[in-house]
Design a protein that fits this description.
heterodimer; A: 1191 residues; alpha+beta; seven-stranded antiparallel beta sheet; 34% strand; B: Serum Albumin, Chain A, Domain 1; five-stranded mixed beta sheet; 10 helices; isopeptide bond (chain B); membrane (chain B)
Chain lengths: 1191, 275
Amino acid sequence: MPSTLLWAVDVYGRVYSLSTAGQQWEQCRDAQLEFKRVTAALQCCWGIACDHNIYLCVHASEVPIRVREETYENQRWNPVDGFSDRLLPSDRWQWSDVTGLQHQPLDSFQPLSENWEWETDWYVDENFGGEPTEKEGWTYAIDFPATYTKDKKWNSCVRRRQWVRYRRYKSQDTWAKIPSEQMGSLPDPFNDISCGGWDITEEPRGRISLWAVSLQGRVWFRDGINHFNPEGTVWEEVQTPGEVVQISCGPADLLWGVLWEGQFLVREGISRDCPTGTTWVVVESPSPEFGAIHVAVGVNVVWAVTKDRKVWFRRGVNSHNPCGSGWIGMVGEMVMINVGLNDQVWGISCEDRVVHFRQGVTVSELSGKAWKPLSMPRDTERSHSSASASSLQSAGCFFGGEVRLQAQASVLSDVDSETEKAAAAAEVVTPCTEGDQATKKRIPKVTSDSFISELVSDREGQIGQRTLTQATSIPEEECAEGDTDGKDNAATDVLPSSSQLGQLDPQWSNVDLEEAQTHLTVGSGGDAAETSSLSSVATYNLGIEDPYGPDDRPLWAWVSGGGCFIGSHTQISWFNSTGLASSVQAMTLSITPAQTAAWRKQIFEQLSERSKREMENFRHYEQAIEQSVWVKKGSMQWWRDWKPHKWLDVQFALELFSGAEGNKDGILFIYYTFNDEKKYLHAFINEVTILVHVLNDSKHTFAIYTPERTKQRWPIRLAAATELEMYDWLALLNMSCCDSRGIQGPPSKQAIWSTTCKGDIFVSEPTPGLEASPYPTPCDQMFWRQVGGHLRIVECNSLGVVWGIGYDHTAWAYTGGYGGGFFQGLASSTDNIYTQTDVKSVYIYENQRWNPVTGYTNKGLPTDRYMWSDASGLQECTKANTKPPSPHWTWVSDWVIDYGVTGGTDKEGWQYAADFPASYHSHKTLKDFVRRRRWARKCKLTTTGPWQEVPPIPLSDVTIMPSGPKTAVEQVPLWAISNKGDVLCRLGVSSLTPAGTSWLHVGTDQPFKSISIGGVYQVWAIAKDGSAFYRGAVSSQNPAGDCWYHIPSPATQKLKQLSVGRTSVCAVDENGNLWYRHGVTPSYPQGSSWDHISNNVRKVSVGPLDQVWIIADKVQGSHSLSCGTVCRRLGVQPLEPKGQSWDYGIGGGWDHITVRGNALEAPRIRMPSLTDRRNSSGVQTPEMNGNTVGC
Amino acid sequence: MADDKDVLRDVWYGRIPACFTLYPDEVTDREAEPFYLLLPRVSYLMLVTDKVKKHFLKVVKAEDVEEMWFEYEGTPLKWHCPIGVLFDLHASNTALPWSITVHFKHFPDRDLLRCSSSALIEAHFMSTIKEADAFKHKGQVINDMQKKDHKQLWMGLQNDKFDQFWAINRKLMEYPTEDGGFRYIPFRIYQTLSDRPSIQKLFRPVSSEGHALTLGDLLKELVPDVISQDDDPKKYQVVIHGIEPLFETPIQWLSEHLSHPDNFLHICIVPAPSD
């Protein structure tokens, strides 16, 4: 998880953010103004500033927010001019949208707001449905509207072409004012704001619900906010039964508000199709005598604060019951509470205004355990006096502009309330008495600051403002001026101007007048005590606080955790003293030799010196202990080879011994009884090619392959009694296999990496013979060992740069370690092993059949599939009985309807068909008698491995430039596709810093799905439409290249994935065909045509020697068929790059392979690093004692 | 070397070349040839000297044979100390091979324990491991192990099976991450110039303030004389497994990586060579 931010505002209106990886609050320097409220999402933060405008801060991303604008140019042929823009009167506009109904000239496109900028000028799109067009992008038809073709025919009377231009959102990492043009309909400024709703639906991407409350208590919903329109489009008013003072919107469908009178409003009916909900329900305050003043909601939780500052937790809240069932009083007194991501809770304590975190909030215990103060320092611990000077200045500026309005307003308002006068007087006196203590600079600052005054003034004070007499205002002005003495000029300038404008009122009255009007429209309002407590939610109550010294800790006014992710069990670096070290470690992704400490070096050096000194000259001495056989035995079950297949109880034994040359070897035996006869099966450890953990519902099983068993597609399948026992055996067997092959330590840079469909990662050391021609080592003899971690895709190059992508699209860089996962102790390196998490969805289907009486019900025919099933319908999968894939996975969400099924769904997620099984469509027709919908539930795996996260952009594909073993490249070119289809180029990647430094976005006209870079900077990619693109002019000097060349896909096929080697380009299409790009030459790198190589191919990897490896489906072994098999193309030669036949390796169940690290040309290069590094033991010397060698 | 795991292998496979000679006064039928052997540093003398015994028994009169014992330059060698410790303590900085004198008579009962069988060595080894685990985990780890695990530890040492031994021993080297180390470090300090056989004390790997303590901290507390002042010439060598780790080496790391199979960190303090 990349670091995320907790946002807060202090009582002076300064905005701070605290990174989960950081150790101090960073002030948001960009904010030139003071803020009243902030509400955060992961991607942005909204705030209400003291000018009562709403501001938005979108976090900068390496992938820009860009929107494609398009319009069509239409032309008609006439005999005189040929094609010209002279259209018939009945024709469409000369410039129109795609339908022709909308007039859309180029200059009608204007940026939405000043926060957008044009990326390029208008240009013609020459790509027509994956096919390039000729003649400037024109497509032809007989008439409008019609089917257009790219070829001009004799009867083509009209033509059109598409013009494209991109606009880009530029106001990132800065507070951009939300344009207020349409806010003319808003009679009063905003008072509270809350964003959420991002879990309601994934479409459109980045959708957020933003709710706001005006000073008059009306509720507004900002429509149209999503990734491509971060500002949203328009405010819609949502009618409420009463006046709302505060509102809180959860990540999902919870929305609660607090009414002026102290009850809650709960919105019901919020859903994917109706984000604003349908009805309000009133929920009473938890405490009969004290009304509620604040509420905060999450996914399944509601927290509230009543006027006596007591904190309450609502029981039984979920999306079916948004109102919950009852209140529970909690310990602690808070002024406000905020529920962040993952239902984590933040609060600001009443007593000392410290941000508190609710510890121990988990799915099972949503109310948490205890409040823990968050006492992080701020980045600036400058004295308050200097800070106040600057805030005074900026506040003063706003003040100057605002007063005019207020003065007018005050003329209009008529006031007569005695009590209000009295209250006002009382309020004014308080600051003055405090101001008398001349040392407290803070007090005058508050009074001269329009915004802060609004924060600190109580409701009755606000009411009273407009009735202030000259007399009461005088002492206050004195106060203010007393303070401004000695402050910079800007500040003092402001004060006279303010008194000129509104000679009646002191400066802090401006806002409150409007508030007062609110009161008038409301009517009598509440009693004084109630209003007071109400409006001082999240305000700093000046009168009752003790004065603080200038260097005192911050006083917080508001906190928002909506952008701050804290897992239920993750350690938060803020709370432990060693957090700094670990966070620094987490941030530095570059791999530096961890063992730089002098003491460690010394030990390593001395040990090797010692070994040399004490042993080098004495190798011929006899060993005191003769090597002998070591046997480990155990009971297991074996899936017997012959039919009927079943689990058989067997004795399992592993015999390990040292060979004549000191090498280790072993044999494993499986003793079984058949027809009362004792028999056994054995395998030599040095013949075992892989040990794979196999998922099985009820047993702890693993499979052992040898070359022979790989040919049969029938491994030795064993089941241990317990998981622990299985992992013990796997670790031991794995170590024995590695020992017998002399493999230890991390994988070499040449290693071949692969992943299984379970997400397990395997790595194989290539031998020089592997790519020998004409007689290469068969690839069923390759030895694979597991590396910890969980990945969907892994890619490498021969410089040791390895990247992986998890199922949740997280990018990971290899750290240089080995082991992790269940490999502990010796089989794992101590350093470079980190925690890795991955998230994937489990899907089940709800099936229904239609009958004439009741319509669709869950009563199927007796012959039907289960009403809750897997995709095939063969297995019953109910919500309750479906488990995560293995005990290592835990559920992290509830079951939700999946609307993203191919083929589309209706509003409720249903897909219809005539019968099971059939092809499903999204709309019910008369012929449809069955329907189904897919439910998804996310589960999470936490494991360890030599991987470190590369935040923050999720990826769907990655490629690293392959190179020869001797090439020294300073910057390794690495390209990737984000999970949204953006093409990215990573900068700063080298063997020492494999994670690189930053992404460079490469613009495309459509989303991409696969990418590969060849040995000489040839970048190929596949777009979503299935056609290929070649990136021109990529070089070490110009890492991102300059433009895309469109390359049509093979006829009627949509390409899916490709790989580029030294010169070869191979691609796989959606129907499993493997294609080779013919005619690629240095002068014409795009090539000329696609040649078919093979079918039944799932993925391809072309290596730096142009070797072609694939994951193949349907490989027939002698005993069984396997899908997902590693295969290598035989007979690939410079003159025959397509090769001749396939050589079948490990499988099935394999999902991905990369051979892009293996630049080992056969046979002259010797394998580095795999020779025996152990200089101790094991070397048998000639007999000496007593008989042969003399000293 | 790239990884700490390699240290474990190097420690395990440490060998001392030794030349065994028969004590001249022993009565022999014919002249006894010296016997050359590579001794595992981490093992025990009586466990690895069957070949020596066999070799010399060929020449010694059977009726003169009592229990075999070893001596180096007049010092009887204690079989219950790991071989590496004996060598570092008595014979470091001498020429190799290490020449050990073999006796079959006059067993020095005042200096040495008798060792009748390898079962005795096993008992000694296991009790030392248990003692070490009492320091490290209040004995919980070793007590939670099964009998066969204990056997595997012993068999691993006896048969020089690194993997077999460490498959179990790694469990003894674990500790809760939040603690930053073992409860106490099992260690023994040997000094040639001291009457005490060894120094042993409770010592935590992490200070009360939470930072890791080092070898230097340990020595400062227990044998302050060893740490020479800046300008003084070095008087002592602090030797573990034949090497001199820097004083800033964290004691926890040493305990995990440079302990003997008995799980104790054996630290030898010997006079610095005076050249």
